[in-house]
Design a protein that fits this description.
With about 160 residues, the protein is an alpha+beta fold.
């Protein structure tokens, strides 16, 4: 038996070592893990990632500014009902981000006393729904305040 024939016998269905191959073979956890990593790689290519340390602190404690803490509000896009409403540029960016099919969800981040909301996309790094994962800035409307503090140490 030639080497080519031996490979055909070992792999009669021509299953490839890929996300669909793992899923088809029943390795669901591996397929889900690879899917999360693949979608995160797409997001990194197109959007600015919020530093993991900053994101964890924001979610847990808020944002520290001179004179105290500012509370951070994260509202799912489908529940957002605050002014200012997103402009057409933000809507276009959201539709484009949805088209990339890399995000698990979208939310609007707003800070106390900051009139400029930020549209974020979220990618879970693990397939469980409690995992916050990575957050990426999709758009901002208003834009009076710098977002540089969100990106420090982002890797």
């Amino acid at each position: 038996m030639s080497k080519k024939e031996a490979v055909a016998v070992k792999n009669p269905a021509k299953v490839t070592v890929s996300l669909p191959g793992y899923r088809e073979a029943g390795f669901i956890a591996i397929a889900n893990h690879l899917d999360c990593r693949f979608r995160d790689a797409i997001a990194v290519e197109h959007y600015r990632k919020i530093s993991k340390d900053v994101w964890d602190d924001l979610v847990q404690y808020g944002h520290e500014v001179p004179g105290g803490q500012i509370r951070v509000h994260l509202t799912p896009v489908k529940e957002y009902l605050s002014e200012p409403f997103p402009n057409s540029e933000v809507l276009v960016k959201l539709i484009e981000a949805k088209g990339k099919r890399c995000f698990d969800g979208f939310c609007v981040m707003s800070l106390d006393n900051d009139p400029d909301p930020v549209l974020l996309g979220r990618v879970r790094l693990k397939p469980d729904y409690n995992n916050i994962g990575n957050a990426y800035v999709i758009a901002r409307w208003g834009g009076d305040i710098s977002l540089d503090w969100l990106y420090k140490v982002a890797k």
